[in-house]
Amino acid sequence: MDPTAWDGLFREGRDLYTCNHGPPGDRVYGEKLRTIGTTEYRQWDPFRSKLAALVSQGGVPPDLWTGARSALYLGGAHGTTVSHLADLLPESPIYVIEKSPTSFAPLLALSKRRSNLYPILADAQLPERYRADVGLVDLLYQDVAQRNQAAIFVENSRAVLAPRGRGIFMLKVRSVTQTRPSVAIVREARAELERAGMEVRAEVGLSPFARDHVALLTRPH
User: Fold this and answer.
1) Which of 50, 67, 72, 173 has the smallest C-beta neighbourhood within 10 Å, fewest atoms?
2) Which of 9, 22, 20 is nearest to 111 (CA)?
3) Distance from CA of residue 139 to its chain's centroid?
4) 74-80 average pLDDT score
5) Range of the domain at 62
6) Total tally of structural domains belonging to the chain
7) 1-17 residue pLDDT tens
8) Residue 156 three-state SS
9) What is the pLDDT at residue 176?
């Protein structure tokens, strides 16, 4: 198992792994487990997780999550990516926003096996409802399927992102529109973030792992 440029992330051949900081033998979505010495590793599938897809594409900065003392994750769904982020930041609280009660139930169960996860049943469009619970965070991660994705990312950045914090915005192009060219949607999203005072330091397409998805990596100017 070889370390990578990203803290807490390992590679065996072409496969990515994180150290399992949950109970030994715990699988979150049926992922493969590998034990080497006294350390158990969980395989991280880039076809199931956009954050893994981002890293797999290469050419992205190694400080994506390094040193983040706390994080806010918008759109936790069933917890696939969240569980690996909890492995990568085992000492940092990760607040997970999910508005679907159906998805929230497995997230809540996951938090009982990952002590640094704090699920919140809320709408990511209304950060004022959870800002007091979350406080300022060093890392904002968003993966929501709504037309106003960029506006949601901007509002949450203004509400909770620390002055030197970093953002990872997974733009779902076809959730914005089914008819206009992808390049135009990405350009407009970038412009909206930049008008809000953010620097877009990288733009990474996630195909073939996630079609019509682009990661925008941000930080305040």
Assistant:
1) 67
2) 22
3) 9
4) 93
5) 46-220
6) 1
7) 999 999 999 999 999 99
8) helix
9) 63
